[in-house]
Design brief:
There is one protein chain. A hairpin with a 2-residue loop joins strand 6 and strand 7. The longest helix is centred in the N-terminal third of the chain and has 22 residues. The protein folds into 2 domains: 57 residues, no CATH class; 128 residues, no CATH class. The protein is built from 4 helices and 10 strands. A 5-stranded mixed β-sheet has the order 1-10-9-6-7. It has a 5-stranded antiparallel β-sheet with strand order 2-3-4-5-8, with no helix packed on it. The chain is α+β, with helices and mostly antiparallel strands.
C-alpha cells in the first residue's frame, strides 16, 4: 500500500479539522484525500461541520434573564418544609367575598375572587379565576415591597403546596407577577422564598376558592 493510500483514523481527522496536526502529516492527509478515499472524505466533512457547530455554540451568549430563571428553579428543588429561611406568615387584609355582590354577579359564567395579604414588608395580591364547570382554578398574583416600592422582585419561585406536597410552581416576572393553574384541594399554602433576605413568605389559602 502506498503512503497516499493509507487510511487515517477519526482522531487524526479530528485533529486535522482543528488545525492540530503537524504540517508534514497534513500534507500526507491531503494527499490521501486527493488519492480519492471517499470514506476519509466523509469523515473529514462530518467533523468539519461538527467543528463549525461547536464554534457557533461557543460564541452564543445565554440571555441573563433566562439564566436567572433556571437558577431560581434549581435552587428550589428541595421540599418546602426543609427550607432554612425565616418563615414570615401573611395576614389577610382584604377579601372581595366580603363586598356586597352586585345584582346578577352570581349568574355570570366566570367566578372571580380577589384577596390581599401582608407579610412583613411585603404584600401579596391574589386573584382567583374559575370558569363554571371547570375542575381547575387559575391564580394570578403580584408580590410587592410596601416599604421599597421600586424593589425588583423578578425570578422569585412561587410554590403552591398542599400539606407537605408541592402542587405546582411558577416564577415571578419583572413586576413581581405570576400565574398558577391547579385543582383546588384542602390545606393549600403559597410559599415565596426571598433568598436575598433570608426569608420565606407563607400565605395560607385553605381550600380556595369558597365561591
Amino acid at each position: 500500500m502506498t503512503e497516499a493510500a493509507r487510511h487515517f483514523d477519526i482522531t487524526e481527522w479530528a485533529d486535522y479539522v482543528r488545525n492540530a496536526v503537524p504540517d508534514e502529516q497534513r500534507e500526507r492527509m491531503l494527499a490521501h484525500l486527493e488519492y480519492g478515499c471517499s470514506k476519509c472524505e466523509r469523515v473529514k466533512e462530518l467533523l468539519s461541520r461538527f467543528a463549525a457547530i461547536c464554534t457557533r455554540e461557543a460564541a452564543y451568549q445565554i440571555p441573563r434573564a433566562a439564566e436567572q430563571q433556571v437558577k431560581a428553579m434549581i435552587s428550589m428543588v428541595k421540599s418546602p418544609r426543609q427550607s432554612a429561611l425565616q418563615r414570615i406568615w401573611a395576614s389577610l387584609i382584604y377579601d372581595s367575598m366580603n363586598d356586597p355582590q352586585p345584582v346578577g354577579v352570581r349568574g355570570t359564567h366566570q367566578i372571580n375572587r380577589q384577596v390581599l395579604f401582608h407579610a412583613g414588608d411585603y404584600s401579596v395580591d391574589l386573584r382567583f379565576e374559575h370558569e363554571k364547570g371547570s375542575a381547575s382554578m387559575v391564580l394570578v398574583g403580584q408580590i410587592a415591597n410596601q416599604k421599597v416600592p421600586d424593589e425588583i422582585l423578578a425570578n422569585l419561585p412561587v410554590i403552591l403546596v398542599a400539606g407537605n406536597r408541592e402542587v405546582t410552581r411558577s416564577i415571578s416576572n419583572t413586576f413581581g407577577e405570576f400565574q398558577l393553574e391547579y385543582v383546588p384541594e384542602s390545606d393549600l399554602r403559597l410559599l415565596v422564598p426571598l433568598e436575598s433576605r433570608g426569608q420565606e413568605l407563607e400565605v395560607q389559602l385553605g381550600k380556595t376558592p369558597q365561591i
